[in-house]
Amino acid sequence: AGLSSVAFGFAKTAPQAVFVRFVCGVLNGTIGIVKSYVTQITDETNRPAAFALMPLGFGLGLVAASELGGSLSRPADTWPGVFGAKFWRLFPYALPLLVCGAYQLLTALASHLFLAAVDARSGYAAVDKEVDGEDDKLAPEPAPVVPVWRRRGPVLSCMAYATMAGAQILYDELFPLYGAPASISRGAARPRPR
């Protein structure tokens, strides 16, 4: 997902930009992984507090990323002494997306180095004791392993999440057009000649 974010800064046409954003969305599975990890490292006593912090982080990230992206875009106009090269004029949104890609790379490295691995079965009641004699009759039979894509609950949860996330992404991407003048929203906007 980090490479597709960087590639978005180098898109020259609208179809390229749409394709790269599509690829970025397809490759972005971070939220599901984070929720799964939080579920595995928490218990019933602290899980609500952990999940309550997640929207705070998303909100702070949305505000900070918007400010940073806006500040770093068009660096040739903002800081011509530092970013006066033709490259920065040709790709005015490359700098914020290069910073975004670097941040994603550092986050992935930090996660790999500092997050402890969690046993996938830790959230389930697994019986690993040897049962002897009479108790052998009372030992539960191991449940058959059913792939997650064949279970109704996880599939419905993923479908509901994909629908809600898709609606949120559409809203976020189209929000600037809500306040745009009618001529721009009808496609009449043209880039300024340089």
- SSE order, as H and E? HHHHHHHHH
Query: What proportion of the residues is helical, as a percent range?
Result: 55-70%
Strand content bin: under 5%
- Mean of pLDDT: 76
Largest sheet: none
Which stretches of 5+ consecutive residues score pLDDT under 50? 123-133
Rg, nearest Å? 24 Å
Rounded to the nearest angstrom, the distance between the terminal CA atoms is: 32 Å
State the secondary-structure class: mainly alpha
Count of helical stretches? 9
Label this structure with key terms.
194 residues, mainly alpha, 9 helices
Explain what this protein looks like in three dimensions.
With 194 residues, this protein is mainly alpha-helical. Helices cover 62% and strands 0% of the residues.
Brief digest:
By secondary structure, the protein is an all-alpha fold. Helix content is 62%, strand content 0%. The protein has helices at 2-8, 14-27, 30-41, 47-72, 75-78, 86-90, 94-114, 152-178, 182-185.
